[in-house]
Amino acid sequence: MAYTLWEPYEIEFLTEVSETMPLALISEKLERPIDSIRKKAKTLGLKTTSFRKPQRWTDDQVALFDTHTIAEVAAITGRTYENAWHKRSRVRQKLAA
After folding, report:
1. What angle do CA 31, 37, 43 make, to 5 degrees?
2. Secondary element (H or E) of residue 23
3. 50-93: per-residue pLDDT in tens?
4. Which of 2, 12, 49, 53 has a Cα-to-Cα distance from 23 of 20 to 30 A?
């Protein structure tokens, strides 16, 4: 596969979403391989969700599920929708047991 130069709008998009959007989704949106996204982010000195240290959920964050949607909890806590969805599922399983 030939190398495709990065367009300014792609760099701007990557800069804006690298810390909050999963690499797979960035790859899909920009139609570039994940490795290409990862390398460009590293070259630009950007942190990506893949490089962030996982954070434990606090009791206060888990309590947000009682009053907010999954999307709202994800936005409030700075996590992906998928991560918030999985956490809510695990919490509900514990309550049902």
Report:
1. 145
2. helix 23-30
3. 655 667 899 999 999 999 999 999 888 888 888 999 999 999 99
4. 2
